[in-house]
Write a structure and sequence with these properties.
15 helices; four-stranded antiparallel beta sheet; eight-stranded parallel beta sheet; TIM Barrel; 375 residues; single chain; 42% helix
Length: 375
């Protein structure tokens, strides 16, 4: 799928899983890829050069929060996200649709869009499908998302899930008409909760609107992994096979590899940095809970099998001390490790697909999570 300098090329396959190359105005991304979350234009406590050294290729920022502060006009005047932040590689911006769920007590949804009471200053903000496209155009992101109504899958509220899915499609049509930047991907979002028929209808209708990339929305909100897998597979059967696919906001390492096995190309999640700030590290032996007393004098590397800067220089005892003392360096070092773990896991997934061995890697990681390697 090509055009206007943007392209997605599938370079390898292992069953439904595939490797690919997503070309953008700010560089190419080898897929499947994990996107560190930089909500306000920064991955908390981690500098752009550190992200690049950890293997990051593309970052994710949030349209709604950047619109709140500093405002898209400020960012545009500084050269867009690439000029404003110092991260010169590709950016993906979420549309703000997830805030329909996360800020539900402050949001009102109608056909026009979403009205928020700002969590910053309490002022009224209105985000429309056209407005979300315009903000993302000003931000200069490489991949923009349509505004969607993201609601959890609740069997007891099937009418709400259906209404949100249908509204997302109407908003997607408006966003597609409003989008003008030829150097920016615009992805449509498939909704439908846990209803296979609704997911199928949403995927087919979103495809027919002519988007060049697609995302799975409304998943990773508590449903069983098997149910999520079924919803992804149902949507993929309707989406163009040569278009990039993005699973939004998910999840644990095993979740990512399950998605890769189904043919997902892009992932994001706050889990690696959020866990890091609480002293929980992802390692080759399972979760390491550094605040436990057993690590107070442990001079081993956090993960002896890891090639990150943290594991090369610092001990479990030192990281535990920093975290318990509230030193910001502790959260920084732990975040660097967890990000390297996630980014390295997707590097391993790309290699496994090329070798026809993704299933073995997926089973290994899922089994490790099942026993929870309780550090």
């Amino acid at each position: 799928m090509t055009g206007s300098g943007l392209a997605f090329q599938i370079t390898g396959r292992d069953g439904e899983a595939r490797t690919g190359r997503l070309s953008t105005a700010h560089g190419a991304v080898e897929t499947p890829a994990f996107m560190p979350v930089a909500t306000y234009g920064a991955v908390r406590g981690v500098a752009p050069d550190e992200l690049a050294a950890a293997g990051a290729q593309i970052l994710l920022a949030n349209t709604y929060h950047l619109h709140e502060r500093p405002g898209e006009e400020v960012i545009a005047a500084c050269g867009g996200l690439a000029g404003f932040t110092g991260w010169r590689g590709p950016w993906l911006t979420d549309s703000g649709g997830f805030q329909v769920t996360s800020l539900a007590e402050k949001a009102r949804v109608d056909e026009e869009g979403v009205t928020f009471a700002s969590p910053v200053d309490g002022r009224r903000r209105v985000l429309t499908p056209e407005g979300a496209v315009a903000i993302q155009a000003a931000l200069g992101s490489d991949v923009a998302m349509v505004l969607d109504e993201c609601v959890p899958s609740d069997p007891a509220d099937a009418a709400r899930v259906r209404a949100a899915t249908e509204r997302t499609l109407r908003w997607a049509e408006r966003a597609a008409r409003a989008h003008q930047r030829a150097d920016q991907w615009l992805f449509g979002i498939v909704q439908g909760g846990g209803d296979a028929a609704l997911r199928r209808t949403s995927a087919r209708a979103t495809r027919d609107l002519g988007f060049r990339g697609f995302a799975h929305g409304g998943l990773g909100l508590g449903e069983e992994p098997e149910r999520r897998d079924a919803m992804i597979a149902t949507a993929h059967a309707e989406l163009p096979g040569d278009a990039p696919r993005y699973l939004m906001g998910l999840g644990r390492p095993g979740d990512l590899l399950r998605g890769v096995a189904l043919g997902v190309d892009l992932f994001d999640c706050v889990l690696p940095t959020r866990h890091a700030r609480h002293g929980v590290l992802f390692t080759s032996q399972g979760l390491l809970r550094l605040k436990n007393a057993r690590y107070a004098a442990d001079d081993a590397a956090p993960d002896p099998a890891c090639d990150c800067a943290t594991c090369a220089r610092f001990s479990r005892a030192y990281l535990r001390h920093l975290l318990r003392a509230g030193e910001m360096l502790g959260a920084r070092l732990a975040s660097l490790h967890n990000l390297r773990f996630y980014l390295g896991l997707l590097e391993r997934a790309r290699a496994a697909i090329r070798d026809g061995a993704l299933g073995a890697l997926r089973d290994e990681v899922v089994a490790l999570e099942a026993r929870d390697g309780s550090g």
